[in-house]
Design brief:
Blueprint lengths: L1 H47 L7 H39 L6 H41 L11 H18 L3 E2 L5 E2 L4 H26 L1 H7 L1
Antiparallel strand pairs: 1-2
Protein name: SEC14 domain and spectrin repeat-containing protein 1
Length: 221
């Protein structure tokens, strides 16, 4: 009777270990998948999240969409971390070594670091674009019969400075801790975005000239 009970216990232990092994393999596979998902989100961020908006309102919408996109990436990263923590617990219980968690965790952390760096750069560009568009729109939309309301050289200087900084920013790559670099979008994407900013800067410059020389407005009208 004692031998029979002991055999049953051994069978239960083996069954538990088999279940834990299945769980371990599943956690390892899902953790690797989380790394792939996060890599795909990083790729999408760099290749498709290019536009800075044609006006302040659109740029604000793009910023909000980006924040939601970051939330998805954060959830993916957290999911991967939880799976890898589960593999550690299972390995300790099984007294074995994980097949992949040893290199999966560094890969997960590396991709997440790259994503956060690229995301912060995206946010910085969008915030600069919002400031640029907002100030430009204020200048361009003010009533011509009240030129004194916007006849402030500092406002024009600020718009020009932000515009130039934004154009410079477009040419700067995202630099990762390992020294590798990546750009947002293709050269044609960059050129298209820069062209729109330059067009807006030209309109602001024209407005400045009109305020300096009111006779220009009279002649054109």
């Amino acid at each position: 009777m004692f031998v029979f009970i002991r055999c049953e216990d051994m069978v239960d232990v083996r069954r538990l270990k088999m279940l834990q092994m299945v769980q371990l393999f599943k956690c390892e596979e899902d953790a690797a998948q989380a790394v792939e998902w996060l890599s795909e989100l990083l790729d999408a961020l760099l290749k498709t999240h290019i536009r800075l908006g044609d006006d302040a309102q659109e740029t604000k919408v793009l910023l909000e969409k980006h924040r939601k996109f970051v939330d998805v990436a954060q959830s993916t990263y957290d999911y991967g971390r939880q799976l890898l923590q589960a593999t550690v617990v299972l390995c300790q219980s099984l007294r074995c070594t994980s097949r992949s968690s040893g290199d999966t965790l560094p890969r997960l952390n590396r991709v997440w670091k790259q994503f956060t760096i690229a995301s912060e750069e995206r946010v910085h560009r969008l915030e600069m674009a919002i400031a640029f568009h907002s100030n430009a729109e204020k200048i361009l939309q003010d009533c011509p019969e009240e030129p004194e309301a916007i006849n402030d050289e500092e406002q024009f200087d600020e718009i020009e400075a932000v515009g130039k900084s934004l154009l410079d920013r477009l040419t700067v790559p995202v630099v990762y801790p390992d020294g590798t670099e990546q750009y947002f979008g293709s050269p044609s994407d960059m050129a298209s975005t820069a062209e729109h900013i330059r067009d807006r800067m030209k309109l602001v410059s024209l407005k400045r000239q009109q305020l300096r020389h009111p006779e220009m407005m009279t002649t054109e009208s």
